[in-house]
Amino acid sequence: MKFPTGGKVREPKGMIRCNSGTDSKVWMKEEIYFAPFGVEIRFQFYPSCLPVELSTGIFLFQEEKQTMETLKFVLVCAAVFAGIILVAWLCEKRLTHDRKLFSSTHYISYTAVFASMAGVLMLIELPLFFAPSFYKLDISELPILICTFYLGPVAGVVAELVKVLVKLIIKGTTTAYVGDFANFVVGCSFVLPASIVYHAKPGKKSALVGMAVGTLIMTVFGSAFNAIYLLPKFAEMFGMPLDAIVGMGTQVNAAINSVSTLVLFAVVPFNLLKGVIVSALTFLLYKRISPILHKNDEKMLKRREKRASAADSSAKS
Question: What is the CA radius of gyration of the chain?
Fold first, then answer.
């Protein structure tokens, strides 16, 4: 910036002028924030006025803090997955009475096929007129529901995880992995209850009841999870204020002016709509796919019985 000869330059208010040793004067201001023991501490510093060693140390501190936050997020993801898979295993062991003794190859291959289909479907996202742009509808739970009705709750949870990994490999993440973590957890809150209800007493009626229960749980849990954890974590990982995320909702719906109204007017109808659409499609498709799957099971069981009887005969002889 050039000033007329004889003009007077005023120092910016609240800033410190630092002589960098060159012909120019530089004003710079930065802010450091940390919260030991839950107490927020903020202070301003002027890196152009600090020794190089101290300025470098401050920036290294900021990078270390970001690394620690990322590590904590990864540990939370791992703990949540372990907890969900444990619940699925206990429910499958205690409540499901109709599971066939699938071979490990059969179990893994079918889980992988359904999970891969779900991962591809996850790439097809539809924006919604009543929600901010980062809420997009997909029907990736459709193959997962068919998988969990066929193989059991554990297969459904594993397929949910593999689905997200397939999507990350193909497309990567645009939400600092928070949206991908949300898709897995909220998807499990839909798939797992539906699978437990169905396998406790298999049948058309229990499938409908299970999907209705899953939709209800997904709506309630998903909305609370967004308000308490996901939205604040999303803001933290992107380094933006939570009000900015609420503001994105306000642009879509003027009634959205807080986190609670964002959840009420965007997240709740989003989860309800997804649950209803996926449930309807699953009900229509599973009736046609189920006979094919069970026919293959009968063939597999007959081959297994023949092998077992042949082994018994050879042992007696």
Answer: 28
